Amino acid sequence: MVNPGGINAFKSNQRQLDLDEPHKYYGVTPRQILHTLALAVHQLGIPHPLQVQGCHFGVPGNIKTTLDTISGIEGIPIHLTHIQFHSYGIEGKRQFSSGAAHLAEAINRHINITVDIGQIMFAPTVIVSSEANLNSAGYYCHPEASKWIAMDIECEGGYTAVPFQYRHDNFVNALQWTIGLELFLLINDPWRVFLTTDHPNGADFTSYPHLIRLLMDRSFRNNILATLHPDVATTSHLKNIHREYSLYDIAVLTRAGVARILGLHDRGHLGKGAIADITVYTNQDNKENMFAVPDYVFKNGELVVKAGKIVKTISGGTHVVRPHFYTGIESKLQDYFTRFHTTSLRNFPITDDEMIRGGQGKLLMHPCKKTI
Question: Are the CB atoms for 259 and 267 separated by under 8 Å?
């Protein structure tokens, strides 16, 4: 769920929609939308929680809305995405500051919350969003970029893509870098955190080995911190955080914890019955080099990478859950599409053949959880 109600509000010339602000046409609030959908996912028994990009993505001061979202969900499990972009305060002369400590404290207290970070890296990338509106990174960043592409389809959503480069000497970018690392290091439980760069918005996923080194090597990250915009380098709390991730923590952050949160019980571990997805490394002091070139990678027990070179390509699978639901809703949806859309409802269901790309790979069915 992306920016609940906000995209539609933009189409009604309501340029922003706060968590408890009613949509001026429909009268519902983002909190009501969030609570209803999160509860529905939970009651349907879907193995993973509702994934949520909250209100005010990338907007200074959005930390308050993020904290209100956590406290207002009333214990229902939700997964908050790329929270680095939702952790901004308005302190200081630039009215832009880190809210990472407050957010980490809230996540530590609310065990129903899982997150991914959305760490930025100092490299060229492309900011991609399904929100072509004022709340999107695309709208805010396009004055700094060479191009801004936006489109709207069927008035149900939007899309924006902006070529962008995060820079060491830019105050905002430097602070974003520290905020992401502060969140990684201040959230106590690695089992509730995904290692992400919100690919490609924060950085390309190939930067993960560099990010892992930042988490495991305090001296390394402090050396980089010292090269940043001086107002960030001298005031950031990051230099005072002594925590370093262990190899065990990284395994949880990138494998075991992710599988558990997604409800994939046959992955993320080496126990009986597990799928043999295994990566083998030679231990090195420089963890970036270590994770950049694995010795071996096994997929479903088959060797696919040796000494960093691909030796075999095999088809993967598509993970599927099929919860029971009230089928009568389909007639109401058909009426809605007939009245308001130029496309038919029958264009939207995806067949099994389409999900496995013309017969390659297979469907991997997962049971729903039992609910009361």
Answer: yes
